[in-house]
Structure formats: structure tokens, C-alpha cells
# Entry
Amino acid sequence: MDETLAAATHIAKLACQQWPCIMGEPQLFMHRENTVYKVETTTGPAALRVHRFGYHDKIDIESELLWMAHLAHNNLQVPSPFANEAGSFLTEVSIESRTHIVDLLSWLDGEALGRSNAALTQTKNELENIFFNLGVGMAKLHAISDAWALPQNFNRHAWDRDGFLGETPFWGRFWDASGLSVDDQTLLQAARGKASRELDLFKAAGGDYGLIHADFVRQNILVTGTQTHFIDFDDSGFGFRMYDFATALVKNRDEPHYETMKMSLFAGYRGVRDLSALNENALDFFLTLRGFAYLGWIDERRAEPGVEVRLPKIRQDTIIAAQTFMARPFFSGSPKD
# Structure
């Protein structure tokens, strides 16, 4: 057990004392951005989440949990937070002058839609139904959020122009990533400038904006039959709704049934909520933004095991995406004739 995991486990055990419903010891489930443990409670299994230090502050995490509780209350299949013995959705554990935040969430059953860097195993028909239901759930998430009167002091980061393309983007300065040539940096800076202007135009034209999940990757979509459930709201915040579509589709573009998945996602969404031509036609633009953000994210983690092996392809993919983007007519998010 490495020191970081040992520390997280110690924090988890201390935090368990704040939820009398927890029975027994926490069992490690996942040690990545956050460290997640499976625990047994008097009402069934739950997920104890030790947040990575310094990523979100207390108000940000409280806001995330209040939003999840509201979504669950409105019958969306997402984890629901447990209040601790003090009535709070989060617990603070202080060790060596650092205060760590821990929360407890209901456990959702289901298998992840897929794994990174591995082909999907579902049939075309199964994927059609899964992505249709994903679109339904995504639309409900957006609709429920729009109808919600935000609590006082609610605060989450924004996937807006600054969040993607500002001097300190939320996931890192992709144009300064390691291993880029001078020509690569020049290209990415030019693409960054064009994307900033296009995002402003898209927003001014009425691009749909509000609370979003912002990370519908395969591991965060749990599937039971063809029904879908959403987990991991760690990167959720305010943003353009088409970014949710992009995160659900970006890693599936090389799948043989990609077009089926895309059209099924759109169809499921439209059955619940309007999807204008302006927004639908902006998908490629937001796929590009997701690629830029991902390069910034992974470059900041290049010291982690296996990242250096993956970085060259991700850099190359980002350069190709930037070249394609720069060759497009300006304001690619505008409705097609």
C-alpha cells in the first residue's frame, strides 16, 4: 500500500465514525482522482468518497451534493448523499494541518458501459437502446436543473470560455503541454484563439447553458440491461449542454456503431427536451474542446503510471483535431443551411 492510499484509508476510517449507519470497515473500491470505498450501512451498501486534497473546496462539494440530492429526489438515477450525525452531507477530517473532505453516497448497481482504450462489447441493438436511454437521462438532468432554484451560496466551476481556453483553464494549459514542438504550440494557440471567438458567438446565438455533468465517460455510465445510471459528479458545474454530448461520444468515435450511438443519443434527448439545430450542429466543436481539455488534464498527470505511454498519441490526436478545426469555416456551431 503506498503512502497516499494509506493516508486515504486512515481518513476513511476516521470519517466512518460520523455516520452511525455504517457497519464494519471500509473496503477499497477505487483509488484514482478521489479514493472510493464500499461500506455496508443499515440500509445497504454505500460509497464513501475521500476527496483529493485541494481540487474542490467545501462550498463547491456541498453544492455538488445538494445538486445530486435534488436530482435523486426527482427520480434521476444518480447517487444520493447521506447526512452525517451532524446533519451535513460532508465530513471534514483534519490530519497534519490538512483538512480532508469525505462524503457518503448511495451505491448504484450496474456495470460500466465500457473501459478506456478497449472496444465496446455490446451489440448494435444494445448500444442503440443504451444511448437512447442515456439521452433521455441527460435531458432529464438538464430539465430538472433548469427548474431548480439554486440554494444560497451554491457554487460550482464553469466550463465556459475561461474554463476551457483562459489563462488558467480548469483542466490545464493544453497549448503548453510537454512534448509539443514550436509549430505545434503555434497551431494550438491559433486554435485556442479561434475557439474563444467561436464560443462567444455560440453563446450569443443562444447556445444552451446551465448545470452539466461534464464527464459522461464510459466508466461514469452504469448500465443495467439497457437502463443507464450516472455517477461521478466531481467535474460537474455550469457549462454548455453540448459538452455533455461531447463527453459521452468523444471516446466512441472509432467504434463501428458510432453513428447509431450518436443518433440514438439525440433521439432520446429530443423525446424529453428541445435540441435546436444550433446546438446539435455544434457537436464537432465541443468534441474538439473536449480533446483540448483532455490534453491539458493528462499532461498535468504525466508522472502517474502509464501516462507517458499514452501521451504521444493524445498529443498527436489533439494536433490533428486542431488542424481540422482551423480548416473549418468560422463559427462551426451555426445552423447548417
